[in-house]
Amino acid sequence: MKENISIFWFRRDLRLHDNIGLTEALEANKKVMLIFIFDVEILEDLPRNDGRLTFIHSTLSSMNEELQAHGASINCLHGKTDEIWAELANQYRIENIYFNKDYEPYAVIRDNAVAEFLSSKNIPTYSFKDQVIFEEHDILKNDGTPYTVFTPYKNKWLTLYKESDSPKELCVLNLMQKDFKLQKLESLGFTESNLKVPEFDLAVVTDYNETRDFPSVKGTSNLSTYLRFGTVSIRQLVSKQELGSTFLSELIWREFFMQIIFNFPDSAHSNFKRKYDFVQWRNNEEEFKRWCSGTTGYPIVDAGMRELNTTGLMHNRVRMITAGFLCKHLLIDWRWGEAYFAEKLMDYDLSANVGNWQWAAGTGCDSAPYFRIFNPAEQQKKFDKEYIYINKWLPDLNTFEYPTPMVEHKYARERALTTYKEGLKQ
DNA sequence: TGAAATGTTGGGGCG
DNA sequence: ACGCCCCAACATTTC
User: Fold this and answer.
1) Residue nearest to nucleotide C15 (CA to C1')
2) Does residue A66 belong to any structural domain of this protein?
3) Class of residue A140 by CB neighbours under 10 A (exposed 0-12, middle 13-18, buried 19+)
4) What is the pTM of this model?
């Protein structure tokens, strides 16, 4: 005799508070099983000691501790998503399935396939907007098409925004009573990472505009990883009164890029502006390695890359500098840099990473124009005058081991301008 | 969320 | 006192 249940599927919304889909599931169903899927198709591409998987794992573990008070737990499954769902549909009589929407191309395809399969079994799926204030087609131009320029998008966002209601209480009585054991990382083929995600800090957001560009100052919030995995609710965050307009703008950028990736999924791997398709990237492998390892001979670039390699994070100002250096000074395809950040960043989010890399390369929607080329020395003077950040990450700076600049700035600048111009002619 | 090149202005040195 | 030059400071244009 099969058990009658409904299911809530956790993905990038790893929290029990203010979780729209979870709340709905528990309100409408007598017995809700919570599941999470370790998707082998995603896992196989990750390093064996991946920091993000460790973060997910420990988050699931603390959620389970919280659920224990209600006699419940999350059923963590491991396999191919479609096979897992086929198995669940076999094992239980499933009444309804709930999850929160994910706007990345891979996720959209996966979720559509899951919904189609379940619908063939007469099981309804319900999906919810949870990880953004405005999604997909919530904010459109008057002609009904999506915005591709940030400022008008932001203005519309601000006019439409209304504070969310306080989150509803979870109907915990409707949780399925079962103690599913969370498998050890080792049994998933992984080991624990020593990368720790720094605690987030909302105290910085009031004078964010004044401090955010200085990588030696604690001027950024460290919220990105928590937003990425949904351990922080975007609604609760945005409703905080102390957010300055600059900080809020950054949260709107996040939603801007999410609607871009949803409405223009090809931009995950193609230039948003196709006229840049003919730019002849040099794509020199050796030079790429020097950029990755932080041995370009430009201190601010190298400090950034070493921060990334060491911590899995990099200060935002320095992300712009390192990305600009790869695209413009070395003329390496932004996709190479995007892929490297994807591998390393704890807070990696496809929409933001692609959007910002295309911004740096000049190929994106509303991007920096191709001729806007950062001068690493000028950036260092403006944002790390005292060499505090640089000295933190470059202990070899004043030794003979530190390399001389791999390419002269003025020469590289001219070369980039010529190469882009040539590409645009075609 | 740039930087370099070019243009303009005005104060001071100096014949 | 005047015109000329120099150049720093600022503004504008260009990439």
Assistant:
1) A371
2) yes
3) middle
4) 0.97
